[in-house]
């Protein structure tokens, strides 16, 4: 018996979407319950324990000594991390040099600065005046052109920036080196075959691609640097932590002040996270067919998909197209 | 007779103790297309890479356009060239790689304008104009702003050819340009190379495409074990190989 084609289509079994009974994840429910109970009890104790002194936290959060400390901490972080990144790139490139003295020098640098505690290095810089009374610029082993008094040249700010920045340079050089060797050798060959010099190849071809590998650990290092600036306490340079210690050593409100500065460190770290996200996105150009959406694009897409078919991938791809 | 574009005299290359090239002597005339075939490990890619000094030769002499590659002869001694001098000479030799090696962080257009801008200081508007024309020529007029990851293998290889041509080279080297491509994409790349040969570009092509070699090449070289086993007119070598090793190789690939 010959069926008309319409009957064949109608005979197909899946005329409507599947409505299956979902699996019950009992283990997940129990785990969620445990986490919720722990979270609620922590919040409850923080809210009810009077020793937290939340009133004082609010009072000191925007105290001018604290906010000044925040500014100094940010300045220190930027200066020391910038020094670390510049040194890191230079040392990493030196490390990859075919000249054994150049690469050996950078190897020794990394060995020394990674091999001694940063706290000790910081103390060294603060006592630089005892080690070298004057700092001279001139011809090595020859006459000096400028003589400077160490103690007036190396200020508290400079002590911390040098101590943390030089140490950071050693760590950053390993991060940068990892990024450089992650770039396929074919890239260098292609650039060389086009007549580009070693420097041009490094600057225009290798480093921009290495950035994708370099940025996540650099974000990590920057966040770490933000908190390491609190070591300025030991050389009596006033940034955020030292400011809080100065206050609580007078009024003995230790806990509220530690909470205040913790909140500030958390806030700055969160801002750094956002910066890192956008940097990573920028250097992801070309690495995948589509860039991940920015949070703002995600919000817009959310609004869109509420109105339209949630599977309309075309709209998403349109929003997330890489910028030329 | 005019100076040949490439002249190799007893070129040797060692990697450690491994002899990869054991005395290669050949000439590529101006406007000629030479195809080099041979089993993997025969040294054909290595020889190609010595021509633009990506590999340094250990013995013999290699000339491009009458000028010694990688060295300067002075007072009976060879002097190494500075990086800058090597780069200047490389800029006149285009190279296309098996794995394309496009710059993944740059669009097709940016890939093509990069070297003229950086090495030749061509003004940006002129570089873009020339690059656009080149990408038109290789059939990618609608892909100027695409990143390599958004292109098929065949499209990427054609961008790579345009990138090499943007430096207006006098010699083009192709290192197995179609070996990494899906079979259906090989044709587009070979078409571009065929056009290039027709326009009189001097080309040295390491390839496994016997059809292309038969049709386009002026000379065919069969290499094995770091030496040239047989060389001559491609139609003759392919149809009537003289040497046992050539016969054995061709019986496997044809």
Explain what you see.
The complex is a heterodimer of chains A (324) and B (254). Chain A is mostly helical and 324 residues long. In chain A, 71% of the residues lie in helices and 3% in strands. Chain A has one domain (54-298): MetI-like (MetI-like fold). Chain A contains 15 helices and two strands. Chain A has a two-stranded antiparallel ribbon with strand order 1-2. The radius of gyration of chain A is 29 Å and the shape is flat. Chain B is α/β, with parallel strands linked by helices and 254 residues long. In chain B, 37% of the residues lie in helices and 27% in strands. Chain B is built from nine helices and twelve strands. In chain B, helix 3 packs parallel to helix 5 (153-165). The longest helix of chain B is centred in the last third of the chain and has 16 residues, at 183-198. The A-B interface holds A 184, 186-187, 189-198, 200, 204-205, 208-209, 283, 285-289, 322, 324 and B 52, 54, 83-84, 87-95, 97, 99, 101-107, 114-115, 118-119, 145, 147-150, 160, 163-164, 167.
Strand-helix topology:
The complex is a heterodimer of chains A (324) and B (254).
Chain A: H1 5-10, H2 26-48, H3 54-61, H4 64-95, H5 100-115, H6 118-126, H7 128-131, E1 134-138, E2 144-149, H8 150-153, H9 156-182, H10 185-193, H11 198-228, H12 240-251, H13 254-283, H14 295-307, H15 313-319
Antiparallel strand pairs in A: 1-2
Chain B: E1 6-15, E2 18-28, E3 33-37, H1 44-51, E4 59-64, E5 67-68, E6 71-74, E7 77-80, H2 83-90, E8 93-96, H3 108-120, H4 124-137, H5 153-165, E9 171-175, H6 183-198, E10 202-206, H7 210-216, E11 219-224, E12 227-232, H8 234-239, H9 244-253
Helix pairs in contact in B: 3-4, 3-5, 4-5, 5-6
